[in-house]
Amino acid sequence: MKPLYLHGAAVSGIRLEHDALRVVTEHRADTWFPLKRISRIILSGDIQLSSKVLAACLSENIPVVVAGQQGEFVGVCFGTNFKQQSLQSHILELYESRAQLYILDNWFLGQQRQQILHLQKRFRLPQDVFEANEIKARLDELICLEHRFYDWQSCLQKMIPMLAAQLTVLLRHFGFDSEVLRPAPASIGLLQHFIDLLEWKLWALAANGHLPSGTLRNQLIHYYQSHSHDIEQFTRLQIDKLWHRFYEAQHEQA
């Protein structure tokens, strides 16, 4: 199964034919993509997607991520037929109490802090700087000066929908459904928590000189896909650590 990237500048229409998506383009022959072979869909630009096509994708558990006009992450759609697992139940308990959501927020803040401390030590950044945006500004300056790459932040913005799509697939496979993935009145949602955490891995890659070959969309897709395995492994590790955090909390209460 592979991700399907679709851009409005190249795609004039998407149709459902049997169990496949027919992608219509103006300057080349139509292409068919069997639903069974699609892991996730990332839409950018102006693309008309019918409810019939969207329903077919969601019924096959294919998340559809939408990017805005500047390539930024706007949102994600997913189906409802995943089974709930124990870790989701723990998180739902926090959502119901709301007053205890700080447990989840603090855990993710702690994981982000570990990533920041590693970057501060690795690149000798000031140890008294704790604000995330300031750290990113220092890293962006380093990327410009040492690697002569001047568009990293705009490139990263365009890769966040790709990250969101991959994380959605992974989290859904671990049993999380829309109730914990999407934003809620008392929480930014589990998906955004993971996006914020995994973004630091992309910053680390760039600061170490692992940068895209250019700023074009296809170059960014190739770059992201070349690191998608490492992102998946790190995400799986974080999910395992989150499970252990709830396990520890249970024994602390016992």
Automatic annotation (TrEMBL):
<keyword id="KW-0540">Nuclease</keyword>
<comment type="subunit">
    <text>Homodimer, forms a heterotetramer with a Cas2 homodimer.</text>
</comment>
<dbReference type="Pfam" id="PF01867">
    <property type="entry name" value="Cas_Cas1"/>
</dbReference>
<keyword id="KW-0051">Antiviral defense</keyword>
<protein>
    <submittedName>
        <fullName>Uncharacterized protein</fullName>
    </submittedName>
</protein>
<dbReference type="GO" id="GO:0051607">
    <property type="term" value="P:defense response to virus"/>
</dbReference>
<dbReference type="GO" id="GO:0016787">
    <property type="term" value="F:hydrolase activity"/>
</dbReference>
<dbReference type="InterPro" id="IPR002729">
    <property type="entry name" value="CRISPR-assoc_Cas1"/>
</dbReference>
<dbReference type="GO" id="GO:0003676">
    <property type="term" value="F:nucleic acid binding"/>
</dbReference>
<dbReference type="GO" id="GO:0043571">
    <property type="term" value="P:maintenance of CRISPR repeat elements"/>
</dbReference>
<dbReference type="GO" id="GO:0004519">
    <property type="term" value="F:endonuclease activity"/>
</dbReference>
<keyword id="KW-0460">Magnesium</keyword>
<dbReference type="InterPro" id="IPR050646">
    <property type="entry name" value="Cas1"/>
</dbReference>
<dbReference type="GO" id="GO:0046872">
    <property type="term" value="F:metal ion binding"/>
</dbReference>
<keyword id="KW-0255">Endonuclease</keyword>
<keyword id="KW-0479">Metal-binding</keyword>
<dbReference type="InterPro" id="IPR042211">
    <property type="entry name" value="CRISPR-assoc_Cas1_N"/>
</dbReference>
<keyword id="KW-0378">Hydrolase</keyword>
